Amino acid sequence: MRKEVSQYIRTKKMLQSFIREEPRWYRLLSRYPHQLPSFEIAALHYYGQTIPHKVERIANSLQMASLMLHLFQAVRD
């Protein structure tokens, strides 16, 4: 793997752990270092760090809070 690609991956813990869990990316980046942006996007999807994932987590939290509020109101009445 190219030195600059390897150094870049070492600077980000998430990318380090992703490449350990998905070793095919190591082989791919060794052959095609220009695939680094695709590698980062794949890591974001793998760890659920994309904007749609974050919005979904917030929506789930709001739904849970709403459910708890209705439950407390029902118990209080």
From TrEMBL:
It comes from the Bacteria. It holds the Pfam family YlbE. InterPro entries: YlbE. This is YlbE-like protein. The lineage of its organism: Bacteria, Bacillati, Bacillota, Bacilli, Bacillales.
